[in-house]
Design brief:
This protein is an all-alpha fold and 84 residues long. It has one domain. Helices cover 74% and strands 0% of the residues. It has 3 helices and no strands. Helix 1 runs antiparallel to helix 2.
Length: 84
């Protein structure tokens, strides 16, 4: 079973280990950008906090998709799907 982001034509959800590495890289990159933005404009903190929450929500969605894809590739899940 294949899982895709967004729609049937979206990008395929990568394996769990790759997804977690990509999430870690994304957090590190975003953290650097957030720190630079805050250093440049401390008054932007309220807006930046909202953006951080939004970004982490999107990262959580990607993590959930990776976990679902990982679980679906396990023999127990494949067996259960065939029984239905």
């Amino acid at each position: 079973m294949r899982f895709r982001f967004g729609s049937q034509s979206g990008a395929e959800v990568p394996p769990l280990e790759q997804s977690l590495r990509e999430l870690q890289d994304a957090v590190a990159q975003k953290q650097k950008l957030w720190a630079e933005q805050l250093a440049h404009d401390p008054s932007s903190f309220a807006q930046l906090e909202r953006q951080i929450h939004l970004d982490f929500g999107q990262l959580a969605d990607r993590c959930a998709a990776a976990l679902l894809g990982h679980a679906a590739r396990q023999p127990a899940c494949a067996d259960a799907a065939q029984k239905k």
